[in-house]
Amino acid sequence: MTEENNYAPLKGIKVVDWTQVQSGPSCTQLLAWLGADVIKIERTNTGDPTRNELLDIQDSWSLYYLQLNANKKSLTLNIKTDEGKKIMYDLIKKADVFVENIAPGSAERNGFGWKKLHAMNPKLIYASLKGFNEGSRFEDVKAFEPVAQSAGGGASATSWNEGKANVPTQSTALGDSNSGMHLTIGILAALLQREHTGEGAFVYQSMQDAVLNLCRIKLSVGLTRLKVGKLILTLMFTSLFKTATRAGQQLPTPWVTQNGLLILALMAGKTANYTRKKFIH
């Protein structure tokens, strides 16, 4: 591969990354992979909380932190001091993108809200990731993975029924990394729009909406309660079974019946040997 056709699509794009934990860093991680120059702003003394999480190897870097922050530069700043603010403002004046996912209202209180930064750098793409939409009654509520999954319906799609209640089983990062991916798409669209308008833009993504987007089929059919854990009906296969002819064949989609789940299968011309009763789950 020549240098000419190995050109990173976001080469030359400067990103100030004021995010932490997983949702925001997963967004800026994607931008870094696409070639952007990402400077991660971390608090003094402690840095990003994930630096001290999942320390699998003693006296080594956190794999959790590295997975979300590789390809980035890191700068520790105390943005509550005049010196820290000045350094941050100087970076933002030269940046193409500013990304934040700190507590609701905190950016504005510290002098880094959209209106102020837009006046400072009219071409800046300001990207904000929060738990809930602006104007929502939960607008000021902090959110992490379990909250986002519960508010967006993801928890009900990966749960077990225990009596009258569903017990969520958190698996993939539907709230965190999925939200970051949605925000990345918005940033890319805003960068393209800037090519035509010459102006920056405000991009906002809520974690709740990102989870809702992945649950749209489930929600559209009005499915509110599942009989089986970790099973999204009409979308997912049940299990893999080894057979005499073909190993690892997937069972087709289960159908909801009055008495439970009915699984239909074609068994190489031997369907007459199977009765309806045997298919009841």
UniProtKB/TrEMBL annotation:
<dbReference type="InterPro" id="IPR023606">
    <property type="entry name" value="CoA-Trfase_III_dom_1_sf"/>
</dbReference>
<protein>
    <submittedName>
        <fullName>Formyl-CoA transferase</fullName>
        <ecNumber>2.8.3.16</ecNumber>
    </submittedName>
</protein>
<dbReference type="Pfam" id="PF02515">
    <property type="entry name" value="CoA_transf_3"/>
</dbReference>
<dbReference type="InterPro" id="IPR050483">
    <property type="entry name" value="CoA-transferase_III_domain"/>
</dbReference>
<dbReference type="InterPro" id="IPR003673">
    <property type="entry name" value="CoA-Trfase_fam_III"/>
</dbReference>
<keyword id="KW-0808">Transferase</keyword>
<dbReference type="GO" id="GO:0033608">
    <property type="term" value="F:formyl-CoA transferase activity"/>
</dbReference>
